[in-house]
């Protein structure tokens, strides 16, 4: 059975070019970039190239790029550094829809004497900058807001938010793991101090990430060890991962226009067809202001895990914000923060595309989804009632 | 990804007895859209008062659908009295087991069955004196008590896995803890089921990991299980405990005491010969 992968906000395929670039560094070129000999040193040169490739995608300077092990490490390092370098400040501002890498960290910090403000979002998942402004105090050390939401794709006005924080001498960090490679980002034109990237979200392998730190920003390392990354992140470099991520950033720079045109068209085609062919369905999140690859659709009166497993039978991969998929009993914190009714949240499916998806795949899903939903609704005790209510009107 | 048995998958993909019987003898609806799962059960009796047909409609995940399907298969051909003896464990067993976090699906089946039979007998729907404990999922104290008894639950987390109670806002977790304590006290020591050796070994390991090791570590010590033969648990004390003069006391008064309390009163803890 062919796999049709529309779960690219969870992880992505390693691009062929990326794997090719990495392979030599997994076997014959295994040298340590810190070594004195040419054998190791030549790997160091490729790490330098990778740093330039990442910097180029972000409009950053190479020395503003620190390689880490993942997005979560980058997020932890950013918040940690802000709190260490501003020891007298005990307040952190985030949003209610942040990734667990930020939310769980902050709920931990709240037990360590820090005060956390979680900004609300509107029913479309939009952040109100006025709320941000009101939340900032002289005690605020850092504001951390995601650039784009992993579940809905909704984009936050992080550049305006960063300026607002900067005007008050507050650090600003953004978790940009979903945004980088999907929408243009240019660090020359904003005031963001720190930004997190995860390699495996943009066709590099798992186990490599980046923390961008603006030149001149005070930084205290999270991983303390050797002199790697100029003493800002100890630990021998994941050379194949870093070289792969460099290549992936180069590809992303090339593909970003395709992402915003072809991928967006595919996403829109899928979304339009599903909404048209499946009654009682709706999109979660602002449809204008979002990533070109993501759509989050709720199918009322059916449950997300059951939908996913029937899709799975056909080789279609996606994800859901339902409670049953998470192991907790509550649907996704993002959908709850948006006030999506439970009846809708339980039946939410996220489709996230990449440049590797084809129109045939989208057509296949458009053909297969309505019978899946119909089949489950046929089993649902609520569908008859709702249906009767509709026809009576 | 959940590790569902083939039987769960098969009953999810090809559910038996989906639908609704017209003019049923018994009918019940449990759960709600907000909870994330709900089940409507209908059944009809034959002239010998045996369940001739049972049908379900379920909103929920794969294991909720499979549990409903299993339930209808199990009760067909039973008398109402026989059906009342079916437990959530029977449903889970029929399916070759369910993940812990999904046991509440089998409990939902059991609840629907009970309510449907009450409906057939014309008895009141809500048990007399039952009180809602978990507001989020509408779970009563009676339901929690029964789940604790029938499944030998020991922690609040277990209760949440089986009944959903406490899985929402969490405000009722203290109340659940009280019910747990009450039921276990009433039931006395015999509530502890006969364990297989394997279960006992696992429970000893878990208890040491969860209840004992953290305290020892706090004082710079540690403990290692060397062997378990029947009720004899051979351990080695490490770190600060290894050289501590009071290690015998630690062993008997703390380690053995806790294991007797939490696993079995017959346990003997010995220090493995050095």
Helix content bin of chain B: 40-55%
The ordered H/E elements of chain B are: HEEEHHHHEEHHHHEEHHE
Low-confidence stretches of chain B: none
**In DSSP terms, counting alpha (H) and pi (I) runs of 4 or more, how many helices of chain A?**
13
User: Which structural class do the helices and strands of chain B define?
Assistant: alpha+beta
Shape of chain A: globular
Greatest contact pair? A-B, 27 and 30 residues
- Helical segment count of chain B: 11
In N-to-C order, the SSE pattern of chain A is EHHEHEHEHEHEEEHEEHEEHHHEHH
Low-pLDDT residue intervals, each spanning 5 or more residues of chain A: none
TL;DR?
By secondary structure, chain A is of the alpha/beta class.
Account of the protein in words:
The complex is a heterodimer of chains A (393) and B (274). With 393 residues, chain A is an alpha/beta fold. Chain A has 13 helices and 13 strands. Chain A has a seven-stranded mixed sheet, with helices on both faces. A four-stranded antiparallel sheet of chain A has the order 9-10-13-12, with helices on one face. Chain A is globular. Chain B is built from eleven helices and eight strands. In chain B, helix 1 crosses helix 2, helix 2 packs across helix 5 and helix 4 packs across helix 5. The two termini of chain B are 45 Å apart. Chains A and B meet through helix 8, helix 9 and helix 13 of A and helix 1, strand 2, strand 3 and helix 2 of B.
């Amino acid at each position: 059975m062919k796999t049709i992968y529309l779960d690219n906000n969870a992880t992505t395929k390693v691009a062929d070019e990326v794997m090719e670039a990495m392979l030599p560094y997994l076997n014959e070129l295994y040298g340590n970039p810190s070594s004195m000999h040419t054998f190791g040193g030549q790997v160091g040169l490729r790490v330098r190239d990778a740093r330039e490739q990442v910097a180029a995608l972000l409009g950053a300077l190479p020395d503003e790029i620190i390689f880490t092990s993942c997005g979560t490490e980058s997020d932890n390092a950013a918040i940690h550094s802000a709190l260490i370098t501003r020891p007298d400040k005990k307040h952190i501002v985030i949003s209610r829809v942040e990734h667990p890498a930020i939310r769980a960290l902050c709920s931990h910090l709240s037990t360590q004497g820090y005060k956390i403000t979680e900004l609300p979002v509107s029913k479309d998942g939009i952040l109100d900058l006025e709320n941000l402004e009101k939340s900032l105090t002289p005690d605020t050390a850092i504001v951390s807001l995601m650039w784009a939401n992993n579940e809905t794709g909704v984009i936050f006005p992080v550049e305006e938010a960063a300026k607002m924080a900067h005007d008050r001498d507050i650090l600003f960090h953004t978790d940009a793991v979903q945004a980088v490679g999907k929408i243009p980002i240019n660090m020359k034109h904003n005031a963001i101090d720190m930004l997190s990237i995860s390699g495996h979200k943009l066709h590099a392998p798992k186990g490599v990430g980046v923390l961008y730190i603006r030149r001149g920003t005070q930084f205290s390392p999270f991983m303390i060890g050797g002199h790697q990354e100029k003493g800002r992140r100890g630990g021998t470099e994941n050379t194949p991962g870093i070289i792969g991520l460099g290549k992936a950033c180069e590809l992303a720079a090339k593909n970003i226009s395709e992402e915003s045109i072809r991928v967006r068209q595919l996403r829109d085609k899928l979304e339009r067809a599903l909404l048209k062919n499946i009654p009682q369905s709706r999109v979660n999140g602002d449809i204008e202001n979002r990533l070109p690859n993501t759509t989050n659709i709720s199918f009322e009166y059916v449950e997300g895990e059951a939908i996913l497993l029937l899709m799975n039978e056909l080789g279609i991969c996606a994800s859901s914000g339902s409670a049953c998929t998470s192991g907790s009993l509550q649907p996704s914190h993002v959908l709850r923060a948006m006030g999506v009714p439970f009846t809708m949240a339980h039946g939410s499916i996220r489709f996230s595309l990449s440049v590797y998806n084809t129109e045939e795949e989208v057509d296949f899903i458009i053909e297969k989804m309505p019978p899946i939903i119909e089949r489950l609704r046929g089993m649902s005790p609520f569908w008859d009632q709702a249906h009767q209510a509709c026809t009576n009107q | 990804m959940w590790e569902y048995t083939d039987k769960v998958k098969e009953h999810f993909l090809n559910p038996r007895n989906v639908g609704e019987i017209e003019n049923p003898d018994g009918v019940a609806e449990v759960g709600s859209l907000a909870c994330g799962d709900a089940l409507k059960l209908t059944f009809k009796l034959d002239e010998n008062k045996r369940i001739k047909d049972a049908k379900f409609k379920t909103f929920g995940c794969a294991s909720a659908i499979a549990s409903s399907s299993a339930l209808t298969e199990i009760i067909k051909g039973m008398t109402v009295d026989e059906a009342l003896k079916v437990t959530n464990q029977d449903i889970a067993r029929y399916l070759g087991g369910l993940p812990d976090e999904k046991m509440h699906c089998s409990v939902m089946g059991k609840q629907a069955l009970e309510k449907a039979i009450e409906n057939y007998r014309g008895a009141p729907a809500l048990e007399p004196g039952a009180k809602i404990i978990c507001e989020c999922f509408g779970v009563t104290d009676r339901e929690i008590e029964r789940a604790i008894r029938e499944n030998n639950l020991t922690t609040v987390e277990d209760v949440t896995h089986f009944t959903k109670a406490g899985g929402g806002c969490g405000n009722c977790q203290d109340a659940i803890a009280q019910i747990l304590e009450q039921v276990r006290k009433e039931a006395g020591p015999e509530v502890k089921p006969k364990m297989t050796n394997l279960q006992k070994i696992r429970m000893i390991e878990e208890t040491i990991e969860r209840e004992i090791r953290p305290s020892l570590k706090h004082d710079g010590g540690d403990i290692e299980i060397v062997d378990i033969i029947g009720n004899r648990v051979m351990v080695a004390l490490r770190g600060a405990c290894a050289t501590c003069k009071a290690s015998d006391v630690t062993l008997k008064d703390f380690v053995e005491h806790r294991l007797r309390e939490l696993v079995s009163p017959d346990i003997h803890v010995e220090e493995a010969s050095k």
